[in-house]
C-alpha cells in the first residue's frame, strides 16, 4: 500500500489482503473467526472512553461502517447492520462475560495463524501491514460471503484478477 488513501480503495485493498488469503480453507477460517475477533476487540475497546464520542468501540464501529460504504456502497450498506449487531454484542453482552471474550479472541487469532501456516504456507498479511490488515479483514470476509452468494460477479472477477496479479510476485508455496 503506497498511501493512506489506498487503504480505502477497494481495488487496492482487496488485492493486498486477498493475496494472503488465496486458499479456500484459510478463507473459511477467516470468515468464521474475523467477525469473532472484531466483536471481541469491540468488547475490549468499550472500556476506553473517547470524549464526545462514547468509547473507542463506538468510534471504531462507525469508522468501519462508513469506510466500507465508501469502498463499495451496496456491500457496505448491507454490512452496516451486521457491524451494528457485532458492536452491540461486543459492547453490551460480552462485556458481562470477559472470560468468554478473552477466550474467543485468543481462539480466533490462533485459528488464523494456524490456517496461514498450514493452508497458505506463508505469513499473515498483518506482518507486512498491520493497520491495513486489521481494516481490510473485516470487509474481505463479508465480500467473500457476498461473492459466494453471487453478488456482483463482474466485480468479483475483477478483484480476483487483481489478486492473481499481485500474487505473481510471491514465492511459490513449497
TrEMBL record:
GO biological process entries: sphingoid catabolic process
TM spans (from-to): 28-48, 60-86, 98-119, 131-151
Recorded GO CC terms: endoplasmic reticulum; membrane
InterPro entries (alphabetical): Mpo1-like
Keyword Metal-binding: no
Alphabetical keyword list: Membrane, Transmembrane, Transmembrane helix
Family annotation (Pfam families): Mpo1-like
Name this protein carries in UniProt: DUF962 domain-containing protein
Organism for this UniProt entry: Neobodo designis (Flagellated protozoan)
Native organism taxonomy: Eukaryota, Discoba, Euglenozoa, Kinetoplastea, Metakinetoplastina
